[in-house]
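Example record for the data management plan.
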Amino acid sequence: MPRSVNAVAAKARRKKVLKLAKGYWGRRKNVFTVAKNAVEKGLQYAYRDRRQKKRTFRALWIQRINAGARMQGMSYSAFMGALNKKEIKLNRKVLADLAMNHPEAFNAIVKLVK
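Corresponding structural encoding:
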C-alpha cells in the first residue's frame, strides 16, 4: 500500500506561516524553517508588548501631568494626593490630555486642588 501524506494540510500550514512572515527581510520571508522561527519570535514579542504598552502609556501620562503641574508650582505626587483628597475622579489619561491639549482647563483643576 502506498504511503499516504496529508500534503494539503501541510501546505496550508506552511502557507499560513509564510503569510505571517510577509514583509520580513531575506530568507525570513520565503524559507519555511527560517520564517517559522521568525514568526514565533515575533508573536512572542507581540504578546509581551501588548502588556508593556500599557506600562509605557501610563509612564507617559505621568510625565505629562508632572510637567503641567510643575508649571503651576506643584509636584506630581502633591497634585495627585490633593486630587484624591478632594475626591476628584479623573484618571491619568484624561489629566494628561488636559495638560497637553487644554492647559487652561488643567490649570483650573490645579487651582481647584491647591
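Summary line stored alongside the record: The chain has one domain: 9-113.
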